[in-house]
Automatic annotation (TrEMBL):
Belongs to the claudin family. This is Claudin-23. Residues 269-280 have a biased composition (Low complexity). Its main location: other.
Length: 294
């Protein structure tokens, strides 16, 4: 079975979110401070959750700078440390569950376990999005996040942007993997559903079995321009009446004699005037009986 699209999408987005959140947590780039009065113009200070680095265009970056304003003791920084580490740990757990649930090397994935991993990854994305949003909200508030007074300016740095992107990718990946619950729920509901009874036909649909009309024999056995012989008569069931009428039979043919029975009786015209007595005594030369004999 091919891996479903929702699982593939979740397995691609979640590791990317984990990598971005890891860089955001470790890199000292949540806030950029610049414009110091007692420092060169090109000096900038990168502040993160664990370290601060000083950078100048003509020199290399120098990390491990002292915290002169109590930045690391600020509440948004402490909460961000805890939640970002928690987000990384929960993401690793979610990816482990996703690997066991998807199981690309097996024929059928474990849909319930893949959906559970999606829920865990979604929660990990929330754990990463909350501290990033809170830190951004108090970015310019010098009473919550200490920073030197004006004209020093504070800006958003790259680690904060990576934290936003990583958390959003975890949310999308977790939601995509959570959609794996759909086939599992469908299968469970199909097993629990009672068997459906026979479907009743619609009231507006009525089927009537009309009897086939009986045809006369002259029509019943006539097709294709010629008469067909009637089928063999089946023995009538007891108590069943036969319905029909006899066809008229043709008149018998008359007998015709091919021999001329009057041959030999024809006489000349002179003898036709004689009486009946003389004709009766005239001999008949035919072998067949003459009219006089009849």
């Amino acid at each position: 079975m091919r891996t479903p699209v929702v699982m593939t999408l979740g397995m691609v987005l979640s590791p990317c979110g984990l990598l971005l959140n890891l860089i955001s947590t470790l890199a000292p780039g949540w806030r950029l401070v610049k414009g110091f009065l007692d420092q060169p113009v090109d000096v900038v200070l990168f502040q993160g959750l664990w370290d601060m680095c000083r950078e100048q265009s003509s020199r290399e970056r120098q990390c491990g700078q002292p915290d002169e304003w109590g930045y690391f003791e600020a509440q948004p920084v402490l909460v961000a440390r805890a939640l970002m580490v928690t987000s990384l740990a929960v993401t690793a757990l979610g990816l482990l569950l996703a690997s066991l649930g998807v199981r690309c090397w097996q024929d059928e994935p474990h849909f319930a376990l893949a959906g559970l991993s999606g829920l865990v990854l979604f929660i990990a994305g929330l754990f990463g999005l909350i501290p990033v949003s809170w830190y951004t909200h108090f970015l310019g508030d010098r009473t919550v996040l200490p920073a030197p007074a004006s004209p020093v300016t504070v800006q958003v740095s790259y680690s904060l942007v990576l934290g936003y992107l990583g958390s959003c990718l975890l949310l999308l990946g977790g939601f995509s993997l959570a959609l794996s619950w759909a086939p599992w729920c469908e299968e469970r509901c199909r097993r629990k559903a009672p068997p459906a009874g026979p479907r009743r036909s619609s009231i507006s649909t009525v089927y009537v079995d009309w009897p086939e009309p009986a045809l006369p024999p002259a029509i019943k056995y006539y097709s294709g321009g010629q008469h067909r012989p009637p089928p063999a008569a089946e023995p009538a069931a007891p108590g069943k009446l036969k319905v029909g009428f006899p066809m008229p039979r043709p008149a018998p043919r008359s007998y015709t004699n091919p021999v001329d029975v009057l041959d030999g009786e024809r006489e000349p015209q002179a003898a036709a005037s004689q009486g009946a007595s003389s004709r009766s005594t005239r001999p008949c030369h035919s072998s067949l009986p003459c009219d006089s004999d009849l």
